[in-house]
Amino acid sequence: MGRAGPGIRVRDAPDPLSRAVAGAPRPRRQRALQARVVSPCRGWGALNPTFFLLKRMSPAAPALWVRLPPVRSLRGRPARSGLLCAGKGRKARPGRQALSPLILPFRERATPVAGLMTKGRGGGTWTKPSRVPVFCSACQCASSQNKRNQHLDGIPRDSLSVLLLLCLLSRTSELNVANAFKPNILLIMADDLGIGDLGCYGNDTLRTPNIDRLAEEGVRLTQHLAAAPLCTPSRSSFLTGRHSLRSGMEADDGYRALQWNGGSGGLPANETTFARILQQQGYATGLIGKWHQGVNCESRTDHCHHPLNHGFDYFYGMPFTLVDDCQPGMPPGLDATTRARLWHYTQMAALGVLTVAVGKTWRLISVSWKVVLGAASLVFLFFISWYASFGFVRRWNCILMRNHDVTEQPMVLERTTSLMLHEAISYIERNKHRPFLLFVSLLHVHIPLVTTKQFLGKSQHGLYGDNVEEMDWLVGEILKAVDVNGLKNMTFTYFTSDHGGHLEARDERGQLGGWNGIFRGGKGMGGWEGGIRVPGIFRWPGVLPAGQMIHEPTSLMDVFPTVVQLGGGNVPQDRVIDGRSLVPLLQGAAEHSAHEFLFHYCGKYLHAARWHEQDRGRLWKVHYMTPQFHPKGAGACYGRGLCPCSGDGVTQHSPPLLFDLSRDPSEAEPLSPGSEPRYHSVVALVGEAVDQHRKTLSPVPPQFSLSNIIWKPWLQPCCGTFPLCACGQDEVPSET
User: Fold this and answer.
1) Are 522 and 502 in contact (CB under 8 A)?
2) Nearest 5°: CA angle at 349, between 343 and 354?
3) Sign of dihedral through CA atoms 368, 371, 374, 378?
């Protein structure tokens, strides 16, 4: 170990890390933790008065350095070399007989220490006491009185006070990790990324080396599922650990996602996000990128749905989402069907008024000019009423905000990637001395697929492939910032997508949406696997096994209790939480997922449910409703933008379709009573689970109602004086 300082290996039985992180209850009688003092002195027992390296015998815990106050030698004289050796008060010199190990059992007694130093490749980083809330304990000798005299003979009280501070990580119950070492939490979510777009999930034509390396260094889930097939409801479930319809973030019919920054719908203030809980646990909580959970309720400045009202203490990014309208020159993207219909109605009404005016002029119609002018005024008011919103989509929706302030309106997409990267790296650097939660909600790979010149034309799959490879580079730069700041081993990192790839996104240049691999369906389809199966990659070096694959059904909703547990918080008990902590599964403490049943919604309509028959290794999927593909036989609803959840575009199945995903993951061959003897019993059992699930639902105010969805000018975020909203920001810093 050299002259860096003595080491203390902490051990117990059984390993408290697995028990603590897994949330197991504390046993009544716990064998005391033991510390073994190791030093650069020849043998055991030297104490460095400045730093102590504490390293668990379990490889799951990172090495920590604890700073101690200066002490005097065992005989009261100043220590010449800064090293004190236990036993007899003598310096250890080469050739001198090694001293026997000093065993220190711990008893809990809260005593704050001076601080911690984390040792990395580039040296040490001093941390104030607030970085890691450490508790020490009083130490007593575990051995007999003779052994105690043998080890502590000649050590005065001032040196014993030093030994008391060696009891770091002494909380051997469920708070061992949560309190003694709170990991940083980095969550990265792509937008509209297909599970088949990544090399680590089978793609051999797109280059995603950084995400692939993340998977190699961590755990990869192969059955990770979004709770909804569209942006707004999926992210609502991700943030709260609850099905989005429990918070009103789903629709019966019509709009299935928020449409305007100036709408009044959004994530209700009474919903609890993982950011709010971690903020209460002392974490810095930041969100960089896409929000799409609403902004205001009653006024332009109430920010009732804003990230800062949901537990994040810093926000930089888009309060809405990317749409084609954000890119000048692109055809209308936001609610294009409604916009076309309104324009058609306006033209027809204007033509009617013009016809009446011509008839009046030629005296073919006996109508007063007041009536003609009144009708023309009504047509003009109708036109203004919808064009004030749809005619300025880019100005109203395509904006950037820092906290509550609009910084760019409209945003310049060509430099947005650099701005987001700069903000993410800056946030990591600003908060590297305290535990932080950073949610990087990427704008990639949602249309219009704005890609920098560095990546244009470089992939084998056109503009979409270019955008995927740029996204991978962006993820790599963020992970590099974690490494450069010495935070890799103390950061829990997660990568996913909000739902499946958008199959209907295409133009004359080709496919603009993602590839969902072997899975059927895509974005907007709540039942088919292609709409909800997403990447799930976790990394925490030294804690989670590297290169591990888990073939158990899990959900984006599981991230909520997982993050809350790692951050030392408690999952709310006053509401239904649909997610389950993934920690036991990720660490290998649990063989199976905590989910026996999972329910898959499209809007408020239950399209499918799955049953994990763990004892037999079977994974059953029951479909109650499926969208009608257009044209018939295609794999998507081309020409409609997205497949519907209900109505004429959906087929209701009675009896339901049954698939065995353990043998048919592509859902290509539905089972029947003739091909599956257990058909009726499986369908009946899943049906009972659905009935029990529905009993947990209760009515809530709908956030996607027409009154909440429509654009309201008094709610529109604006920099400057409304409606003259326009502002820019400084150029991107040169280092990014």
Assistant:
1) yes
2) 125
3) negative
Tokens 């203490």, residue located = 313
Around Cβ 44, how many Cβ atoms within 10 Å? 21
> What phi and psi values does residue 307 have, to the nearest 5 degrees?
-55, -35
- Element (H or E) spanning 654, and its range? strand 650-660
Which pTM was predicted? 0.78
CB 67 within 8 A of CB 50: yes
Q: What is the pLDDT of residues 167-201, one digit of tens each?
A: 433 333 343 444 347 999 999 999 999 999 999 99
Q: How far apart are CA 32 and CA 13, in angstroms?
A: 9
How many other C-beta atoms are found inside a 10 Å radius of the C-beta of residue 395?
16
Judge whether 683 and 658 are in contact, CB under 8 Å. yes
Q: How many CB atoms lie within 10 A of CB 202?
A: 12
H-assigned helices in 607-705: 679-694
**Distance of alpha carbon 386 from alpha carbon 388, whole angstroms:** 5
CA 497 vs CA 210, 340, 500, 646: distances in Å: 16, 31, 7, 25
Eight-class DSSP state of 567: T
Q: What's at 308, amino acid-wise?
A: L
- The closest of 275, 335, 189, 295 to 703, measured between CA atoms, is 295
Beta-carbon-side half-sphere exposure of residue 166 (alpha carbons within 13 Å): 34
Q: How many CA atoms lie within 13 A of 533 on its CB side?
A: 25
Q: Which pair of tokens denotes residue 614? A: 């763990």
Residue 217 CA to residue 548 CA, distance in Å, equals 8
Pairing of strands 605-613, 618-627: antiparallel
| Tally of residues, the chain | 736
CA 510/CA 447 separation, integer angstroms: 13
Say how far apart CA 53 and CA 51 lie, in whole Å: 7
Instruction: Check: CB of residue 239 under 8 Å from CB of residue 498.
Output: no
How many whole angstroms separate alpha carbon 200 and alpha carbon 179? 34
Q: What is the mean pLDDT of residues 212-225?
A: 98
Specify the DSSP class assigned to residue 730.
P
pLDDT tens-digit readout, 369-393: 999 999 999 999 999 988 999 999 9
Catalytically active residues, by annotation: 231, 292
Check if the beta carbon of residue 315 is closer than 8 Å to that of residue 401.
yes
User: How many Å apart are CA 180 and CA 491, to the nearest integer?
Assistant: 14
Which residues contact residue 684 at a Cβ distance below 8 angstroms, ignoring those fewer than 6 apart? none
293 neighbors 310 (Cβ within 8 angstroms): yes
**635-662 b/e (C-beta count within 10 Å ≥ 16 → b):** ebbeeebbbbbbeeebeeeeebbbbbbe
Average pLDDT over residues 497-518: 92
Location of structure tokens 């470089």: 458
Q: Could you give the CA distance from residue 182 to residue 175 in angstroms, rounded to a whole number? A: 10
Average pLDDT over residues 121-129: 38
Phi-psi group of 248: left, alpha or beta (phi > 0 → left; psi -120 to 50 → alpha; rest → beta): left
Q: Which two tokens stand for residue 228?
A: 């909804």
Distances (CA, A) of 499 to 189, 457, 469, 553, 640: 10, 26, 19, 15, 19
Contacts (Cβ under 8 Å, ≥6 apart) of 296: 262, 264, 302, 303, 304, 305, 306, 715, 717
Tell me the C-alpha distance between 361 and 650, whole Å: 52
